[in-house]
Each structure stands twice: as C-alpha cells, then as structure tokens.
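Hi V.,

Quick status before I head out on leave. The structure for the redesign project is tokenized and pasted below; the design run finished overnight.
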C-alpha cells in the first residue's frame, strides 16, 4: 500500500482526464474545450486522490501504532508470564499510569 499512496492523486487525475478527453473528442467538441474539460477533470480527481491518500496513510499509521502497542504488551507479558503489579509499587504511580493510558486511548 505504501507504494501506491504517493502516486494516487496523479493516477486518478490522469485516468479521469484521459476518459474525459476521449469522450469530449468523440462528442466532437472543440480542442480548446476538450483540453479545458480534461484539465478540470484532472484537478477534481487529483483532489479526490489527495483526500484518499491522506485517509489511507492515516489508517496505516494507526494500524502500525496498534501493532507496536500489542507487540510491546506481548513482550511485557513474556517477561512476567502474566500481567502483574510489582510488589512495592506506589498506588499513585499505578493511578498515573492508568490515567496516562486512558488519555492516550481517548486521543486515538
């Protein structure tokens, strides 16, 4: 997916411009109007491509962050064997960790 996302606006815009130019040519529209329509189609669909690219990259970034979190949790469980609290840990520290986790989850 990473190889397609950067080229998405150009591909969508070019494909749309090609189709519009071909249809305008078949309809026997003047060459200037044909070019104007093709450029307009390119701009509109390139803008859609930029929006889609942004959404794809955002989704991929969130998926990577979730994978890193789950990997870190698995490593923590592998070290301890199970989720546990170390003896002597102050309650204030545990509450701070819980609040930080809740804030991070709410911001995501």
């Amino acid at each position: 997916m990473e190889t397609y996302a950067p080229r998405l606006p150009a591909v969508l815009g070019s494909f749309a411009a090609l189709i519009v130019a071909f249809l305008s040519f078949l309809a026997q529209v003047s060459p200037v109007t044909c070019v104007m329509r093709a450029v307009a189609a390119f701009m509109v669909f390139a803008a859609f491509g930029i929006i889609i690219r942004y959404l794809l990259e955002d989704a991929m970034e969130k998926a990577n962050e979730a994978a890193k979190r789950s990997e870190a949790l698995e490593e923590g469980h592998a070290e301890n064997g199970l989720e546990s609290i170390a003896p002597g840990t102050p309650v204030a520290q545990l509450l701070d960790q819980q609040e930080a986790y809740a804030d991070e989850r709410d911001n995501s």
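Above is the designed sequence. The helical segments are 8-26, 31-80, 91-107.

G. will cover questions while I'm gone.

Best,
W.
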